[in-house]
Each structure stands twice: as C-alpha cells, then as structure tokens.
Write a structure and sequence with these properties.
alpha/beta; about 40% helix; about 20% strand; about 350 residues; 9-stranded mixed β-sheet
Length: about 350
Amino acid sequence: MSGAAVHGGALGIVVVNYGSAALIERNLGSVDLAGLPVRVVVVDNFSTDRARDEIAGLAAARGWQLVALPSNGGFAAGVNAGIEAARAHGCVAFLLLNPDAVVAADVIEELRRHSLREPAALISPRVVDPAGNVYFAGARVFLDSGRIRGGRSDGALPVAPGRRARAASGPAHEWVSGACVVVHDDLLQRIGPLDERYFLYWEDVDLSVRCVAAGGTLVVRDDLTAVHDAGGTQGPTRGEAKSALYYYFNCRNRLLFAALLLPRRQLVRWMWATPAVSREILLRGGRRQLLYRPSLAWAAVRGSAAGLRTAAAALLRPPAGHDARPVTPPARALVPDLPREGLR
C-alpha cells in the first residue's frame, strides 16, 4: 500500500466467498500482485465452520484481509462489507471479482488506472469462458419485457444448441456484469452501495442503471480480458444445467428490479411477460435437466411467484424513488428445498 500515492490511488479487490476457498486459491491466488497498489479483501459469507477455517487459512497465508460475516447475507451484502473494509484502508476504487474469475495482473492495473481517470464510470473487461467463448461484452435489459440479451451477437447469454432465444427489441437499459467490474468510490458515494434486497443476481443491472441515472457511464474494455468459469461457485451440475438458486433468484429479481426502478406501466408489462420470460430463464440450462431434476422448474415457478407478489405490492404503493438501503433478504427461508450453493 505504500506505493498508493505514487500510483494515484489504491485499488481494493473484493471477492465474496461462500464455501469457495479452493476456487479463490486457484484463480486469484495464481495472480502475482506484487508491486501493485492493491489490497485484497475476501468476504466470507458463512457456510460451515470448515469452510470458514479454510478461507481464513488461505487469507492468512496470502496476506489478504478477511471479513468474516456471521451469516450468508447474499452477494451484495458481502460486496458492501468488502468495500467498507477496503475503504477503511485507503482504497479509492474497487474491483468486484467473482471467485470463479481470473484476471491477469496487468489487466487489474489497467482497470485501476482507468477508474482513476474516469471515476464516474463502471468499467468491465471483456469476459470469456475457459474455452475463449465470449461470456460478456456488454448487455441490455429490454424495457418492454425484462428480457436480457447480450449487447452484441456474441453477447452474454448464449442459448444452447438447437434453441433460439425470442427476439428482444426496443428501448433498453445497458448494464455491465458484476463478475468483474471496477467502481470508483466517488461514484459509489453518489449512487449508494449495492442493493442487498436482491440477495443474488440482478445487483449489477440495478447498479448500472443507477450509475447512468446519476450521470455516470458504462465502459466495456474490449482490449482487456477476464476469464470466468460461469457457475463455478454453484457446485456440480450436469450438462448445461444451472442451479436452483440461479433460477429462483433470476426469476424473482427480474420483477424486484422492475418494482424498484420502473414506471408502473412498464412494471405491468414485465408482469404480463413473466410466464414466457421465466420459461426462457429456465431453458438456459436446457430441457434435459428437467428429466433428472424436475425441482428446477419448481424453483423458477417459486421465484416468479415471489417476484409477482413484490410487483403487485409495488403497484399498490404511491410512486417513489429507488431506495437502496439494505433490507433483510428473503434468502434460504423462502427456498428451503435448495441445496447449499455458492453466490454466482
């Protein structure tokens, strides 16, 4: 940290852990950060005593700061705690990094420098999977339905072979992926922290929209690359299948986002489109998954129902602006049948 003044400002690398110590050791632990003005903060959302001991040992061996939370409050809660810890040690920008993502040291340094040059921007590299296929290069959420599509033909949400995603067009919000994104503290002071009501998924969409609404910008650096083994924190799955948490919270949070940020007319449109869009979310994992895990469909149904209840309640309230104060998330109490899985 002693070189922070020379380099123009320190970067806090914030990683949220949920039983993923081995992933973090393999990915972030493989990056040589020596000489860079960075501080690594690992936030452990409690899963088990054994997992807590594993991540504590790894942090101590690597010289990383550990923030040990007493429970699993979700991705946003972990990020917010990590940012507070990094801020307390003088960091002025923060790299939010998934446990299953790998970023080279020179990319991290360029992201830091870019954030210092452009503090009103959310900045992401181009993100690819281990095979080199584009996972994220910009994305949009369409305002007529709540469908998410990659910003380009090779965008963030490819469909499985043999299926075609329903076309989406019209007005849309751009957003950048929270798998690897840099945010400056100046911007956070203007727009507030990540909204903990989401628990999992859509926090990055929400943050991106609030960034632009506050006069900030979204930047995807095509010349910089991160590798993301998507779903690595979710435990073993078969084929293209996603986790039950993925389906539940994607279906739920799509409507939570609409209830928090969209006008009533658009909210009603998103509610009307929910059966079709939730089906599309479920089929991101293919049809075959339902043969051996039909409960995944139930997770999507339950998430959709929870989201519709939230949306209906919003329609009954007087119009109000976005309130980013943390609210206790519904988390596992509403999804008792789901396995103990990771954050993203």
